[in-house]
Amino acid sequence: MLRIDPTSAEPPFAQLRGQIIAQVSEGVLAPGDRLPTVRRLAGDLGIAPNTVARAYRELEADGVLEGRGRAGTFVRATVTAGRAAPAAVSARAAAERYAELSRTLGLEPAAALALVRQALEA
Fold first, then answer.
1. Whether 73 contacts 64, CB under 8 Å
2. 80 vs 25: which has the higher pLDDT
3. What is the pTM (predicted TM-score) of this model?
4. Buried b (16+ CB within 10 A) or exposed e, 66-102
5. Of 41, 84, 94, 117, whose CB has the highest number of CB atoms within 10 Å?
6. Domains along the chain?
């Protein structure tokens, strides 16, 4: 079951994204499972459709979900033709976003890695 915590500092799209990744990783959502439509899930969770659409788009970009047009949004196969598991794909995408942000901020690679190590140890 997906839930949004309105008191969380984490934005709703990120909460939704994280919960879907966790459910895929834990096998609650299996490859080929169809997710609710954007409007239906937004209504069920009491959030804006654009919030759900953003989470779905990011998960599609990360290789966790697959949009099939009018047929809907589905969980991708965990391993397909050399693709990594959804958690690894999402982690790599997050790492790439962090690397880009670090470059934009002018951080040296060693400083950016030190921050990641600190975060992982926390």
1. no
2. 25
3. 0.67
4. beeeeeebbbbebeeeeeeebbebbeebeeeeeeeeb
5. 41
6. 12-121 (1.10.10.10)
